[in-house]
Amino acid sequence: MNKKEFVLYLYKIGAIKFGEFKLKSGITSPFYVDLRLMVSYPDLMNEMANMIIEKIKGKEFDLITGIPYTALPVASIISSRLKVPLVFARKEEKTYGTKKLIEGNYKENDTVLIIDDIITTGESKIETANLFKEAHMNVKDVVVFVDRSFNAKEFLKRYGLELSSIISIDEVLEILRENGFIRDKVVEEIKTFIKKSTEEEKRLTFKDRILKAKNPVTKKLLNLMESKSTNLCLSLDKETSKEFFEVLDKTSDKIAVLKTHIDIISDFSLSFIEKLKERSKKEGFLILEDRKFADIGNTVKKQYQKGLYKIASWSHLITVHTISGPSILDGLFKDLKEEKGALLLAKMSSKGNLIADDYTRRTIEIGEKYSELVSGFVGFGETESEIKELKRKIRDDFLLFMPGVSLGLKYDSLGQRYITPSEAIRGGADIIIAGRGIYESKDPKAIAEEFRKQAWEEKTKNEL
Ligand code: BMP
Predict the structure, then answer these.
(1) Which residue, 33, 97, 100, 243, has fewest beta-carbon neighbours within 10 Å?
(2) What ranges make up the beta strands (E) of 346-423?
(3) How far apart are CA 369 and CA 158, in angstroms?
(4) Which atom of ligand 1 is nearest to the CA of 434?
């Protein structure tokens, strides 16, 4: 069977479809390739194995893996034919028995070749490669059957992975057109869709967004970030005022926002606030009190405006949970004259948190309804495509703040998860939040500059 016959066979069994399909990444696509069906056609499975075997000749590897579920069966055929052992990474960590993430025998420094059926964004390939790398193996090559990506080859290259594919979506379309299965119009529509999806990756500049923003603090912050060339928020979770100001004084010229948890300062006094306000004015950063209000309107109003901390008198921004419903925003800002902004928690970075997709969606709806008071959202995604999925749902008049950002660490011992500044910004974060990565480092000034530089450069690269 040649490539052409193979594609026509796939079309015949319904593995290539045209219409409207919602992809895992949240994008609506005019076509869908579903190679899971192939397991019912042994001759197709064998042919695919032949083509991949041909493709991987000359590549170096000790082990083969297929990404579950679709590519695992074909990877097993290849493994058996080449007599190269198979390993595979589980989709979910086992909660019983060995708790192993990778099944099969392997040793340190083994090189694993990744096989998958199709590539769209490249995200799941990176995730799989990372699992093997965490187990101290090497991954150099990824081989897929269909490349329907926007620019996955480039994307994978950034992670040191070489992508090879058997056939591109353009070739598939051409074969189907030549044989009269799709019309020219459909081919053009699909090509435009692929091109447009690449363009959509580009974002509006902060300057353009100043005009769109409805909340005054958002406008101020966008201006400030542009003039200071930074979209870094320092989460300064130090417990004494001495340590707090020591770090702040080293880093204040690098940051756009200072995030506080005022109730963890053990020697809190009003002079702390005076000092903080003075630094904010002089060094040009906004203060975000990460209070995560969550109660009924009447209570949060008091927690925000009264009490020991009088948060409303000094913070420009506050974080708010939407668990108690939209009236929390009515309560917080009741009778307040100053310009303030709320950041609603749309997705958290802690492992196992209970925020589900519907909660995120409804939180964004609340933000839209209260767009004069809401500056944006706090959100997290473990991968670039997870962040992109969230970002697509958030309008340009809102800012997306992203915690769980570190230069190298993947998690802490208490459930925090991390991604890198570049991943966060490429995914769509506007502002990265970094805490221990900076204030616990030996040289907070240099490290803050590293975070600033990475995030700002990435933001600039991703703009229109
Ligand atoms: P660190 O970079 O040291 O892990 O700190 C992250 C900061 O962001 C903490 O102050 C934490 O309270 C906050 N945060 C978070 O980590 N995840 C969220 O989902 C929301 C947060 O506000």
Answers:
(1) 97
(2) 374-378, 399-402
(3) 40
(4) 2
Pairing of strands 28-33, 16-22: antiparallel
Pocket test for ligand 1, best of 239, 349, 355, 378 (most atoms within 8 A of CB): 349
pTM more than 0.85? no
- Cβ of residue 15 lying under 6 Å from some atom of ligand 1: no
The region of weakest confidence among 42-51, 115-124, 195-204, 350-359 is 195-204
The predicted-structure confidence for 207-242, as pLDDT tens digits, reads as follows 999 999 999 999 999 999 999 999 999 999 999 999
Query: Using an 8 Å Cβ cutoff, are 405 and 458 in contact?
Result: no
Say how many Å lie between the CA of residue 404 and the centre of ligand 1: 6
User: With contact defined as beta carbons under 8 Å apart, do 90 and 102 qualify?
Assistant: yes
CA of 235 to the centre of ligand 1 (A): 7
Measure 380 CA to ligand 1 centroid, in angstroms: 10
Of 59, 24, 50, nearest in space to 145 by CA: 50
User: For 68-75, which contacts have Cβ atoms below 8 Å and span 24 or more sequence positions?
Assistant: 69/36, 70/35, 70/36, 70/38, 70/116, 70/117, 70/118, 71/115, 71/116, 71/117, 73/39, 73/45, 74/38, 74/45, 74/48, 74/49, 74/115, 74/117, 75/115
CB of 435 within 6 A of ligand 1: the answer is: yes
Q: In whole angstroms, what is the distance from residue 112 CA to residue 132 CA?
A: 8
Distance CA 250, CA 445 (A): 5
Contact 74, 45 (CB under 8 A): yes
pLDDT(252) > 60? yes
Q: Write the CB contacts of 148 (distance below 8 Å, at least 6 apart in sequence).
A: 31, 33, 118, 119, 120, 168, 169, 194
Q: Measured from the CB, is residue 232 less than 6 Å from ligand 1?
A: no
Cα 444 to Cα 232, 289, 341, 434, distances in angstroms: 13, 21, 28, 11
Q: Which atom of ligand 1 has the smallest separation from the CA of 290? A: 22
Confidence of residue 139 (pLDDT cuts 50, 70, 90): very high
Tokens of 289: 């009190």
| pLDDT above 70 coverage of the chain, percent | 96
Q: Write out the two tokens for 265.
A: 């300062």
Query: Which DSSP helix (H) or strand (E) runs through 440?
Result: none
